[in-house]
Write a structure and sequence with these properties.
There is one protein chain. The N and C termini lie close together (11 Å). The longest helix is centred in the middle third of the chain and has 13 residues. The chain contains five helices and nine strands. Strand 5 and strand 6 form a beta hairpin. It is found in: Cytoplasm.
Length: 172
């Protein structure tokens, strides 16, 4: 887990995207390159990456961190995108958000040469998004070695319901 200083760089927006939600925004971290580099270093050294063949990053903020980790570890990155964003044959699943419902898709061809994956996202809240990606990978006969996130909302206890290890850098 990272320092308290990093958690201070996460901005919080009350009642966004709907009333009752306090949105944790990781984007201000990008304005601090030294801290971002340390964050990526911390995320990249997680044990879950050692036995993975590739990374699946979740639309859209997960792409930022997944790309950096992919480059640092020289591991391929696959994207899980929201509806209507990917061409070709897809695996698609729906999921529940802390504040609604959505779906994600992965290109079948993108994962065919890899067996084990780490899922990367910016934030773990209810775990619905991570489980959605996990279900798509399982449907394709793939393994999940873990989930790596910048922020975890600890009070929601999503990690207790996920069937794979979770590595988070900041817990609120």
């Amino acid at each position: 887990m990272m320092s308290n200083y990093l958690s201070q760089l996460i901005s919080q927006h009350k009642d966004f995207p709907k009333k009752g939600i306090v949105f944790k925004d990781v984007l201000p971290l990008l304005q601090h390159p030294n801290e971002l580099e340390g964050l990526i270093q911390g995320m990249s050294t997680g044990q879950i990456f050692e036995s993975s063949d590739a990374i699946v990053s979740i639309d859209a903020r997960g792409f930022i961190f997944g790309t950096a980790i992919s480059m640092k570890l020289s591991k391929p990155m696959i994207v899980a995108r929201k509806p209507g964003k990917l061409p070709g044959e897809l695996i698609t699943h729906s999921y529940e958000l802390e504040y609604g419902q959505n779906s994600l898709s992965i290109q079948k061809k993108a994962i065919e040469n890899y067996q084990s994956f780490v899922i990367v996202d910016d934030l773990l809240a209810t775990g619905g998004t991570a489980m959605c990606v996990s279900e798509m990978l399982k449907e394709a006969g793939k393994d999940i070695t873990g989930l790596s996130v910048v922020v975890e909302l600890g009070q929601l206890n999503a990690r207790a319901y996920l069937p794979f290890p979770v590595e988070s850098q900041i817990i609120f």
